[in-house]
Write a structure and sequence with these properties.
Layout: E1 6-8, E2 11-13, E3 19-21, E4 24-25, E5 30-31, E6 36-39, H1 41-58, H2 63-79, H3 81-92, H4 96-121, E7 128-130, E8 135-141, E9 145-148, H5 163-170, E10 175-178, H6 184-200, E11 208-211, E12 213-214, H7 216-224, E13 230-234, H8 237-249, E14 254-257, E15 263-266, H9 268-287, E16 299-303, H10 308-321, H11 330-346, E17 349-350, E18 367-372, H12 373-378, E19 391-397, H13 400-408, E20 413-419, H14 427-438, E21 441-446, E22 486-492, E23 514-516, E24 519-521
Amino acid sequence: MALQQVLIAGNWRDAHSTKTFRANNPATKEPLADEYPVSSWDDCDAALEAAAAASVVMRGLTGDQIAIFLEAYADRIEQRKDELVELAHVETALPEAPRLGDVELPRTTNQLRLAAAAARDGSWANVTIDTSTGIRSCLEAIGPVCVFGPNNFPFAFGSISGGDFAAAIAAGNPVIAKANSSHPGTTRIFAEEARAAAQSTGMPAGIVQLIYRTGHDDGERLIADSRNGAVGYTGSQHAGLKLKAAADAVGKPIYLELSSINPVVILPGVLEERGDALADEFAGSCLMGAGQFCTNPGLVVLLKGGGSDSFVSAVAEKFSGASVGTLLSSGVEKSLAENLAALQAAGAENLTPDATASGNGYCHANTLLRVEGSEFLKSPASFQAEAFGNASLLVIADDVDQVGVIVDSLEGNLTGCIYSESNGKDDAAYDQIAPRLRVRVGRLLNDKMPTGVAVSPAMNHGGPFPATGHPGVTAVGIPASLIRFAMLQCYDNVRPHRLPANLRDKNPTGKTWRMIDGAWSQGDVG
């Protein structure tokens, strides 16, 4: 059993700590061998100091230099693929194949390379040049960024490897990564390779740093510190809102992904057209990965009558007969049980009472709940508790008008979907519901379950509160995700040789798109 070190200012060193923790294997509930420190404020202070120094150096780096680091890091990750996949499987119980090795790891290195391309191109910075007034502006790095990673995506959303990390670095900022306690060993391997990539490409020592855990007070103090520029957080609503309060108190930008039940509206015509296939599609989406996706369909709205009864029966049978997946941690297991109990206490009926939790390690029976639309509307907030895991709630509405009222009562979500008959039978209902759902979600889908988030420049992995803390930005989708970790900086009558390269008359890359006197151009000024 070894006590792992923290990475601060480019060096692995013993942490300042009086407490330690160990991760568990979710499939066996047994603690793993390595111990990890709970860092005191001394570690946070040292990391902030190193990050602040690195931030000054990074302001003088070109986009190409940052891109070279990101690409070198991606290459090094791929060289340790087998080790990363094996340890992440032990720490999370997520399948080695295809999930970790064939899907999530390639997505992670792809994100890093896309971020590198955005840094090299520079068009993300919204360069604006007004020659008549001598005023020029662009987005530039905001300063050190603290990234808190989630438990369910140890690679693609990891604090030292995922989308927030890639965006923050590509925008020119150093990152202080706070590992998720569920997979600290996996995060340590990423940190080893990030450090090596930084050294081989001449990056400043504090560009990437890692601590594993802090006390709550020190965590809040860390993100509120004046040396910190911004925060990226993915995790529970409870912890996220505490961090948001600390950041808001000092006006610090914080970008949160908190919770989402991702409503799906299924109209009558599509049930007549392909109800059996839709039951398969929904059950597969909801139970995949034990339902531990931020875009899992946690609430489904149906209209009473027609094919709804047979659809509900078919889904309940599939839930009861499907194998039970392993949950990520004891905390996920406990939270799922508590929130399902709360939903039933509010009036939801359990349609799968005989289902058993026969999975390995941390687990819960596949659970399908049902409530009438009129009951839902008596206490909408009570029925929107996120049951994160292998569960979903069906809401049976009286008519299309009531569906609209139900949609109006929803909190903000990452996604929302409407299924409709392919030949137009449901078009009138769709036209009534879609505008109301549109403002409740960041991404609207048709005839497609929301599980899964494509890495696309057009993707919005965001949405109104409480899905995220800010409805105007995305956590997935490069280059748009970079702007979260940048600030608009304006130069008025500044001498040409003192301007940032992308604001000078000559286009520094020959490819960067710039707004010059009201027109987008890749050319030089004048």
